[in-house]
């Protein structure tokens, strides 16, 4: 049976330029090609959860503009179980400027959040039944923090499991971290949360230990090409990176988080869900774009089965 995932998060219009390298300050550099399409961490992760097999209710907010019209048309044809899309009259739809460069397809992103940061307390209250009915609530930090906090409080009151992907960075309190069931920072966000420079598994373990002391019960720190660290107070596991030929890494983190939520909602345990999410993300980076690059459940399962050597590896718990 498919699990129910509620995703509260941003919608942005993405404008992507593919470069041979990143431009230097003050330099104009010709792009190899460019594209425009749907994005935003919330919409991307909702799409990934859907493609990974979940029933998804997406909650977001856009402006009363052409980009907002584009958002509605795109989301309505995506295949979500339900969509709650509020409209802001004062600010435009969020947008992002993305550079993708080099053989590893690394990216640099500038985001203007726009309407994403105007979600009101009344709008959150209207979503309370939806959140309570879900198995998983997946949130990020691309909306106003007051709305995120209220949404998490509603989830806890309804017994819904909460995943927080703390991206892009906003300062959050230890009180909020303690309300989250699973925290999923990348190495940069883990450093911003803890003050520990995360460059490898050993430093990731130190950062995870700090996060546990702050109240985070379960943590997955994604480490790019190195894979990910899964840490609870009882165990630490190395989640491997699946072999891939990177074309665009823009949506990798969103693919991982959406697939992780989908598999947890379906009943997988955390190591199984994280391993599937790693396979899912490895397919995403082989395609251009973010929302439009998400693979299917069947494709991810095939990659998972094609690499039996990729399994979670126990690590000594760092305390």
By CATH, the topology is UDP-N-acetylmuramoyl-L-alanine:D-glutamate ligase
Main sheet? 6 strands, parallel
Assign a percent range to the helix content. 25-40%
Count of the domains: 1
Strand order of the largest sheet: 5-4-1-8-9-10
| Helical stretch tally | 11
Which word captures the global form?
Answer: globular
Low-confidence parts, pLDDT < 50 over ≥5 residues? none
Order of helices and strands: EEEHEHEEEHHEHEHEHHEEEHHHE
Structural class, judged by helices and strands?
Answer: alpha/beta
The second-level CATH architecture is 3-Layer(aba) Sandwich
- Separation, N- and C-terminal Cα atoms: 38 Å
Whole-number radius of gyration? 18 Å
Rounded average pLDDT: 94
Q: What is the CATH superfamily classification?
A: Ribokinase
Q: Roughly what fraction of the amino acids lie in strands? A: 15-25%
Number of strands: 14
CATH class: Alpha Beta
Task: Report what the structure shows.
The protein has 319 residues and is an alpha/beta fold. It has a single domain (4-22, 33-315), classed as Ribokinase (UDP-N-acetylmuramoyl-L-alanine:D-glutamate ligase). 36% of the residues lie in helices and 24% in strands. The strands form three sheets. The protein has a six-stranded parallel β-sheet, with helices on both faces. It has a four-stranded mixed β-sheet with strand order 3-2-6-7. The protein has a four-stranded antiparallel β-sheet with strand order 11-12-13-14. A hairpin with a 4-residue loop joins strand 6 and strand 7 (106-112). It is globular. The mean pLDDT is 94. Its cofactor is Mg(2+). Catalyzes the phosphorylation of ribose at O-5 in a reaction requiring ATP and magnesium. The resulting D-ribose-5-phosphate can then be used either for sythesis of nucleotides, histidine, and tryptophan, or as a component of the pentose phosphate pathway. K(+) binds at residues 248, 250, 284, 287, 289, 293. It is an enzyme of class 2 (transferase). The active site is at 254 (proton acceptor).
